[in-house]
Design a protein that fits this description.
Strand order of the largest sheet of chain A: 1-9-8-3-4
Shape of chain B: globular
Distance between the termini of chain B: 37 Å
Number of helices of chain B: 0
Largest sheet of chain A: 5 strands, mixed
Number of strands of chain A: 9
Oligomer: heterodimer
Largest interface: A-B, 18 and 24 residues
Radius of gyration of chain B: 13 Å
Structural class of chain B: mainly beta
Order of helices and strands of chain A: EEEEEEEEE
Radius of gyration of chain A: 13 Å
Order of helices and strands of chain B: EEEEEEEEEEE
Number of helices of chain A: 0
Number of strands of chain B: 11
Helix content of chain B: under 10%
Shape of chain A: globular
Chain lengths: 108, 115
């Protein structure tokens, strides 16, 4: 798995869009970008993944740069329940290796 | 989405005893399951990869004789912490790889406290 770099923590006001960046400059051609989140004392929850095209689902949008060296997870309207640690992973889903993640605080 | 369960959700045991944690894929078959460990305020650390019907593959630094993994069926993997000590106290999380959809699904975790 390629190494990823994320900010240690971020704040976002409730109702605003939360934009979480991730650098994965060593990603290889067949590796996907995955995003998971972990709410305190629970198992990780899958959010979204993509290869090179931007992706959107009911939870979030994933924007991947053209060179695939970085990506941004967008939570369009953050709520207090989105407070969690968000993990960006570059790899294959036959083996998910977690980095340190970004602790996202949603402020009321 | 697919559901993965773990049992028990929490366990307290005395030092020196063994503890078994079960991981089940409830509505899909998983040829591969994974076991992670997470200490407070740290990220998940992959311990081992478990393939149905074969021996588990352990990550570097993980003692295979201490953390026994059995993947006897396509829906069940077990992790046994043998001769547990207080430093084994942690949050243990499993995941299961489904082929349709081609995704990994995580269990809710088991919190182990060794006294």
């Amino acid at each position: 798995d390629a190494k990823t770099t994320q900010p240690t923590s971020m704040d976002c006001a409730e109702g605003r869009a939360a934009n979480l960046p991730c650098n994965h400059s060593t990603i290889s051609g067949n590796e996907y970008v995955y995003w998971y989140r972990q709410i305190h004392s629970q198992g990780p929850q899958y959010i979204i993944h993509g290869l090179k095209n931007n992706e959107t689902n009911e939870m979030a949008s994933l924007i991947i740069t053209e060179d695939r060296k970085s990506s941004t997870l967008i939570l369009p309207h953050a709520t207090l329940r989105d407070t969690a640690v968000y993990y960006c992973i570059a790899g294959r889903d036959d083996k998910i290796i977690f980095g340190k993640g970004t602790r996202l605080h949603i402020l009321p | 989405g697919a559901v993965v369960s773990q049992h028990p959700s929490w366990v307290i045991c005395k030092s020196g005893t063994s503890v078994k944690i079960e991981c089940r894929s409830l509505d899909f078959q998983a040829t591969t399951m994974f076991w992670y460990r997470q200490f407070p305020k740290q990220s998940l650390m992959l311990m081992a990869t478990s393939n149905e019907g074969s021996k588990a593959t352990y990550e570097q630094g993980v003692e295979k004789d201490k953390f026994l993994i059995n993947h006897a069926s396509l829906t069940l993997s077990t992790l046994t912490v043998t001769s547990a000590h207080p430093e084994d106290s942690s949050f243990y999380i499993c995941s299961a790889h489904a082929t349709a959809p081609d995704e990994q699904f995580f269990g809710p975790g088991t919190r182990l406290t060794v006294l």
